[in-house]
Amino acid sequence: MYRILVLGILFFALAGCSASIDGSKYQQTTPPLSLESFFVGDVKAWGIVQNRSGDVVQRFTVDIKGSMDGNTLVLDESFNYEVGEGPMQRTWRITPTGNGVYEGRAGDILGVAKGTSYGNAFNFQYEMDLPVDDTTYQVAFDDWFWAMGDGTLMNRSYVKKFGLVMAEVTIFMQQQ
Fold it and tell me: Which residues form the signal peptide (predicted)?
């Protein structure tokens, strides 16, 4: 019993070290972020993935072609990796459901991504099977976007397993 108690305390202590962002802090912050306004058209992105030690394990660029299909935002993403490897293509279909809430779907995403708009910030949460070397891990993404103005956007993703941050993704995006 003592061993279970110690493991439980250790688990919750480590889980408390995971990133947690309060989106309501950005509700009144400018410039406002509109996914539809930012992503319709061509967007270029540059990004890195860092492991738990802070080492860069992926460096990549993304060409994003955004369009509207009715009220659904369609993002066709093409990836090019300078370091590491990953998906070469992904197509997101993101639909507003009301009150700043969105649902997103993509072929390699498990279930439905849930998104919430907070003024100049947007949070997207979803799960996916992430291939790493010869293994695949089911992980959760806590994906944050912030409008920077002048057609630029910063994205910070926290990749979590068992509630712990296993990797972090940083992406800079610019309208073309």
Answer: 1-15
Tell me how far the alpha carbon of residue 145 is from its chain's centroid.
Answer: 8
Alpha-carbon gap, residue 82 to 75, rounded angstroms: 22
Question: For residue 15, what are the domain limits?
Answer: 2-175
Per-residue pLDDT band at 15 (split at 50, 70, 90): very low
Contacts of 132 (CB under 8 A, 6+ apart): none
Q: Can you list the alpha helix ranges (DSSP code H) found in the chain?
A: 2-15, 35-39
Amino acid, res. 20? S
Question: What's the CATH number where 61 sits?
Answer: 2.40.128.20
The whole-number average pLDDT for the span 114-127 is: 97
Q: Residue 64: which of 51, 48, 46, 83 has the closest Cα?
A: 46
